[in-house]
Design a protein that fits this description.
single chain; alpha+beta; 80 residues; 38% strand; three-stranded antiparallel β-sheet; flat
Length: 80
């Protein structure tokens, strides 16, 4: 699937320093988009919650998932 190749490629880019990769990446996806949810999980995203009645789509309110991926070694602030 072309979308998987593009998305996967973006998530595999090297980040030489913590400053170049935010401590957290977030996304929102409709709950009925199983292929996208599976892809995001494959790349380390986890469901953090559900936005109920998130959007009106074709006249019907639909839910969405809030997903996030945390940096494996998040940058830290210097000690005070």
């Amino acid at each position: 699937m072309a979308e998987e190749a593009v998305f996967g490629g973006l998530l595999q880019l090297p980040y030489p320093t913590p400053e170049l990769w935010r401590a957290r990446l977030e996304l929102t996806v409709y709950t009925d988009n199983a292929p996208a949810i599976a892809l995001y999980r494959k790349f380390g995203f986890e469901v953090e919650g559900t936005h109920r009645a998130f959007a009106l789509r074709r006249g019907v309110l639909v839910d969405a998932l809030a997903m996030a991926r945390l940096h494996p070694q998040p940058p830290r602030l210097p000690a005070a």
